[in-house]
Amino acid sequence: MPKLNYWAVIVAAVVVFVASSLWYVVFGNELAKVSPVFAELQAQKPAAWRMLAVFAGSVVLSFVVAYLIGLKEDVTWMGAVGIGCLLWLGLSAVQWVSSMVWEKVVLRRKSFRPGTAIP
Question: How many CB atoms within 10 Å of residue 101?
Fold first, then answer.
């Protein structure tokens, strides 16, 4: 396992969280025009557990990226399988959790059509 700078992982997670929050501040009104679920959520104050879930997803994504950067050259074919699993965890799984938390997508429905948002 590569040596990781855990402070850098946390700082990266905070930066990702703040950047995504700013994205929704800037483009939230446009998104609300095309997503009734988002428009409903935008009218409410966000629940603390949702914000914590998004931050946790940012931590997972930052950790996966830091881990993959740390691997550089030490990759065997089994390591490549592990990298594929980590990429799924760091990218797809985090996206699924965000869909379930913010867009009220049910896990069972989401698993039938991976990579697509189901209203």
Answer: 19
- b/e map 24-57, b = 16+ CB within 10 Å: eeeeeeeebeebeebeebeeeeeeeeeeebbeeb
Cβ-based neighbours of 4, under 8 Å, separated by 6 or more: 63, 66, 67, 70
Helical spans, DSSP H, in the chain:
6-34, 36-42, 48-71, 77-87, 94-102, 107-112
- Tens digits of pLDDT across the chain (119 residues): 678 888 988 998 898 888 888 888 888 888 788 878 778 877 788 788 888 888 888 888 888 888 877 876 666 777 777 777 777 777 777 777 777 776 666 655 544 455 555 44
How many Cβ atoms are within 10 Å of 64's Cβ, its own excluded? Answer: 21
The two structure tokens encoding residue 82: 């592990």
CA–CA separation, 66 vs 47, rounded Å? 29
In the 8-state DSSP scheme, what is residue 43? T
